[in-house]
């Protein structure tokens, strides 16, 4: 039997690896840890406000900041990303060819079951 890390801590560990100025997608994290993009979104939403986790670096597959229930979190997310030097185009998208973080093989294998 293989011991597995609990899901949310595995997701959070990956998010901690994304350096300033880069993003990843909910789906990419889901692929690595073995869950859906939606589950990654639930994990991000479950974070307390002041965690120190760079949650803003996780975006949707279209390169956009996802709308938040409170209506303001997406504005904060965009502000935080822009402060890191990430540029949004006129369609409110981030160019994933320039800003997508590629997790290393070492990191990916550590998180896979």
Q: In short, what is this structure?
A:
The chain has 113 residues and is mainly α. The chain contains 6 helices and 2 strands.
What do these coordinates show?
This protein has 6 helices and 2 strands. The chain has helices at residues 7-16, 26-33, 37-45, 73-83, 96-99, 105-111; strands at residues 24-25, 58-59. A two-stranded parallel sheet has the order 1-2. Helix 2 (26-33) crosses helix 3 (37-45). It is globular, with a radius of gyration of 14 Å.
Percent helix? 40-55%
Please give the number of β-strands. Answer: 2
Give the biggest sheet: 2 strands, parallel
| CATH architectural arrangement | Orthogonal Bundle
- What does the radius of gyration come to? 14 Å
Q: What strand line-up does the widest sheet have?
A: 1-2
What would the CATH topology be? Arc Repressor Mutant, subunit A
CATH class: Mainly Alpha
The tally of structural domains comes to 1
C-alpha geometry: globular
Structural class: mainly alpha
Low-confidence stretches: 109-113
Which characteristics define this entry?
single chain; 113 residues; mainly alpha; Arc Repressor Mutant, subunit A; two-stranded parallel sheet; 6 helices; 2 strands; 43% helix; globular; disordered C terminus
Compile the SSE list and pairings.
Blueprint: H1 7-16, E1 24-25, H2 26-33, H3 37-45, E2 58-59, H4 73-83, H5 96-99, H6 105-111
Parallel strand pairs: 1-2
Helix pairs in contact: 2-3
């Amino acid at each position: 039997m293989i011991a597995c890390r609990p899901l949310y801590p595995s997701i959070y560990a990956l998010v901690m690896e994304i350096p300033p100025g880069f993003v990843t997608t909910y789906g990419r994290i889901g692929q690595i840890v073995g869950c859906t993009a939606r589950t990654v979104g639930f994990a991000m939403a479950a974070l307390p406000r002041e965690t120190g986790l760079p949650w803003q670096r996780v975006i949707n597959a279209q390169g956009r900041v996802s709308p938040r229930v409170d209506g303001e979190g997406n504005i904060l997310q965009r502000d935080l990303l822009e402060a890191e030097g990430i540029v949004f185009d006129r369609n409110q998208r981030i160019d994933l060819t320039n800003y997508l973080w590629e997790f290393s093989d070492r990191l990916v294998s550590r998180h896979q079951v």
